[in-house]
């Protein structure tokens, strides 16, 4: 398997509390990888470690062939973009001004705006369908629109790898689907490697090419959704009984959790 | 090309600009020039424009030349330099802390400079109340005080940089501490020194000489140049910490660098001018309202508006209170104090 990101024996602690314990993982290039698991399992921490926001107490993360510790901030930002879970920008910013910021790692004092910048921003705006909103201020947008702007910024960064930390948390169901459809389109049409933290097991199964299930800071299982989302694994990872069926529309596994007392 | 933005190329420099913002910056520059001219023309004797120009090119009457070149021009230039420094210092602080209330005055940095000036005057006086070192070291003392007090606020707020009100509270506490120290030093120190320090503390522009203008000018140009270089980085720091990290501006030293630059700019201004307050609070807000947030135009605009504010304050005190020399800082505080109150009472203003 061609690897976009490789983690070797990664351990991370917050103070004295270990959060990730000896993680070995290979994230496939050109695929949508979903990191999933119960609350507090360490999935957001894992994403933060991949993006070098946390320094692991042991182990190594490699992007392609390169240890991320050997890359400069700028080099890393040209290879891996990140959409934060609680991304926030000043209200006065326009849509265009925020999307344009995605170009920062490619610019310099003399090259503040090149043709490459214009092309990347244009492509990002087109992919996210933002052309009619370009001059709007951020505080006039709905939550769904705002998330699209952030995705466009990340896209304008023009990196082979995109990391998304719970991108659909505060969206209604229509916008959740819109967002994930967009993410998949980026993967299929623009060959982006996507690493995304998701809460919802069924949406994970629907959009993932490759899934990583975490529990208590350890990788519990990896594989395709078909391999992974089974009644046994759900019991093991989430501690609940469930029935897993094949969904009648997309043929992906669909988990129906069973109430503790029916 | 895209909406109000236009790409442009100047030799090796490739940029994006907004024609409207560029025009507004031009208007602001004109305003500052007009205020500076008015400042030179106005005083105990009115000197018309033609005689000012004659004096400037060395063809004026001897008296005109003395008044224009030796007395009034340094004063006007110092107002421009100090205003620009204070405005940009406020802008950097507001961005570094992601807090619209941050500014040299609110964070207690100006008062910190005051403590240092008093300590300087007292420590280096001999038994006869005369200074043992040159008075030209006073600006250096003020600068040191400003830097130390900003460092103190930064250290106190290191964990809570994103909680706007808390940061302001630290600033208020530090400023209160500085003011208490100032009072104590004034009461216990030599009387002559106290009156000398009072003028500095209130921020007065009279008695500025060319030597001071030259030093302040060099420092201002250098520091504003560095500010121009870090503007793009500062725009990215406007986002939340994690998004900024994703764009390659994750190192905490970036924010620290903005603090240090702001401290040096404040120090440059207050060391020569004294405690002119609230310019650093108001100038960035006005510039953002006029020119938008994330641009180089915002930086230039902030500097120009800061200059215009200090020039106006100085003009007002001279027009209303002459021949008594009321410090310009009194006017900026009269406007800036209520403005700060307005900001504090306004709702939903947490994201700088």
From TrEMBL, chain A:
<dbReference type="Pfam" id="PF00005">
    <property type="entry name" value="ABC_tran"/>
</dbReference>
<keyword id="KW-0410">Iron transport</keyword>
<dbReference type="InterPro" id="IPR027417">
    <property type="entry name" value="P-loop_NTPase"/>
</dbReference>
<dbReference type="InterPro" id="IPR003593">
    <property type="entry name" value="AAA+_ATPase"/>
</dbReference>
<keyword id="KW-0067">ATP-binding</keyword>
<dbReference type="InterPro" id="IPR051535">
    <property type="entry name" value="Siderophore_ABC-ATPase"/>
</dbReference>
<dbReference type="InterPro" id="IPR017871">
    <property type="entry name" value="ABC_transporter-like_CS"/>
</dbReference>
<keyword id="KW-0472">Membrane</keyword>
<dbReference type="GO" id="GO:0005886">
    <property type="term" value="C:plasma membrane"/>
</dbReference>
<keyword id="KW-0408">Iron</keyword>
<protein>
    <submittedName>
        <fullName>ABC transporter</fullName>
    </submittedName>
</protein>
<dbReference type="GO" id="GO:0006826">
    <property type="term" value="P:iron ion transport"/>
</dbReference>
<keyword id="KW-1003">Cell membrane</keyword>
<keyword id="KW-0406">Ion transport</keyword>
<comment type="similarity">
    <text>Belongs to the ABC transporter superfamily.</text>
</comment>
<feature type="domain" description="ABC transporter">
    <location>
        <begin position="5"/>
        <end position="241"/>
    </location>
</feature>
<keyword id="KW-0813">Transport</keyword>
<dbReference type="GO" id="GO:0005524">
    <property type="term" value="F:ATP binding"/>
</dbReference>
<dbReference type="InterPro" id="IPR003439">
    <property type="entry name" value="ABC_transporter-like_ATP-bd"/>
</dbReference>
<keyword id="KW-0547">Nucleotide-binding</keyword>
<dbReference type="GO" id="GO:0016887">
    <property type="term" value="F:ATP hydrolysis activity"/>
</dbReference>
From TrEMBL, chain B:
<keyword id="KW-1133">Transmembrane helix</keyword>
<keyword id="KW-0813">Transport</keyword>
<protein>
    <submittedName>
        <fullName>Transport system permease protein</fullName>
    </submittedName>
</protein>
<feature type="transmembrane region" description="Helical">
    <location>
        <begin position="256"/>
        <end position="283"/>
    </location>
</feature>
<feature type="transmembrane region" description="Helical">
    <location>
        <begin position="324"/>
        <end position="344"/>
    </location>
</feature>
<feature type="transmembrane region" description="Helical">
    <location>
        <begin position="73"/>
        <end position="93"/>
    </location>
</feature>
<feature type="transmembrane region" description="Helical">
    <location>
        <begin position="295"/>
        <end position="317"/>
    </location>
</feature>
<dbReference type="GO" id="GO:0022857">
    <property type="term" value="F:transmembrane transporter activity"/>
</dbReference>
<feature type="transmembrane region" description="Helical">
    <location>
        <begin position="213"/>
        <end position="231"/>
    </location>
</feature>
<feature type="transmembrane region" description="Helical">
    <location>
        <begin position="136"/>
        <end position="156"/>
    </location>
</feature>
<feature type="transmembrane region" description="Helical">
    <location>
        <begin position="21"/>
        <end position="47"/>
    </location>
</feature>
<dbReference type="InterPro" id="IPR000522">
    <property type="entry name" value="ABC_transptr_permease_BtuC"/>
</dbReference>
<dbReference type="GO" id="GO:0005886">
    <property type="term" value="C:plasma membrane"/>
</dbReference>
<feature type="transmembrane region" description="Helical">
    <location>
        <begin position="105"/>
        <end position="124"/>
    </location>
</feature>
<dbReference type="GO" id="GO:0033214">
    <property type="term" value="P:siderophore-iron import into cell"/>
</dbReference>
<keyword id="KW-0812">Transmembrane</keyword>
<dbReference type="Pfam" id="PF01032">
    <property type="entry name" value="FecCD"/>
</dbReference>
<feature type="transmembrane region" description="Helical">
    <location>
        <begin position="168"/>
        <end position="193"/>
    </location>
</feature>
<comment type="similarity">
    <text>Belongs to the binding-protein-dependent transport system permease family. FecCD subfamily.</text>
</comment>
<keyword id="KW-0472">Membrane</keyword>
<dbReference type="InterPro" id="IPR037294">
    <property type="entry name" value="ABC_BtuC-like"/>
</dbReference>
<keyword id="KW-1003">Cell membrane</keyword>
